[in-house]
Write a structure and sequence with these properties.
By secondary structure, this protein is α+β, with helices and mostly antiparallel strands. It has six helices and seven strands, in the order E-H-H-H-H-E-E-E-H-E-H-E-E. A seven-stranded mixed sheet has the order 1-2-3-4-5-7-6, with helices on both faces. It is globular, with a radius of gyration of 15 Å.
Length: 165
């Protein structure tokens, strides 16, 4: 390839690339559940732009191309909700997702005072579950997504983010 993937804070100019990448990446999740109405697939470009303006959003770049992204925000209970982590299918399995997660975790603690991290993933999403457990997340419960997909809720204390580096 010749270029290395870099992780950086997303900018407003990244909105369309994030939007398209998210749509591509979450096709496999939708197929896994037979549900093409999952949130990442029905989210609007305007909604992505809004998240860029308010949330902690990071991207992975290969040259000028956005090949990964993640978003996070701190909820009222001090937990950082991390979501829509995705990496281009051709680059999965190379640690980019873990690097994006680390960047978001660090920023959410340092800039927004997160006390713990929380994320949700589909109950059949074995690859996601492996990644999250490998970087210190533990299952704390289950829920049902607005789209009806059974979800596993995972958390870890904010002090643990440095251990995932």
């Amino acid at each position: 390839m010749g270029m290395s993937v870099t992780i950086s804070v997303a900018t407003e100019q990244d909105a369309e690339q994030i939007f398209r990448l998210q749509y591509l990446c979450f096709q496999s999740e939708a197929a896994l559940y037979g549900n093409y109405r999952i949130d990442p697939l029905v989210q609007s470009l305007d909604s992505v732009r809004q998240e860029l303006a308010t949330d902690c959003v990071f991207v992975a770049r290969l040259g000028e191309e956005v090949v990964g992204s993640v978003r996070g925000s701190v909820t009222e209970d001090g937990a950082a909700a991390i979501g829509k982590l995705c990496v281009h299918p051709r680059l999965q399995g190379h640690g980019i997702g873990a690097r994006l997660l680390r960047a978001a975790e660090a920023a959410l603690v340092e800039e927004r005072g997160a006390k713990r991290f929380r994320l949700f993933t589909g109950h059949r999403s074995e690859g996601n579950l492996r990644l999250y457990r490998r970087v210190g997340y533990e299952t704390v419960g289950t829920s049902k997504g607005a789209d009806g997909v059974p979800m596993i809720v995972l958390e870890k204390p904010a002090g643990a983010y440095a251990a995932t580096a």
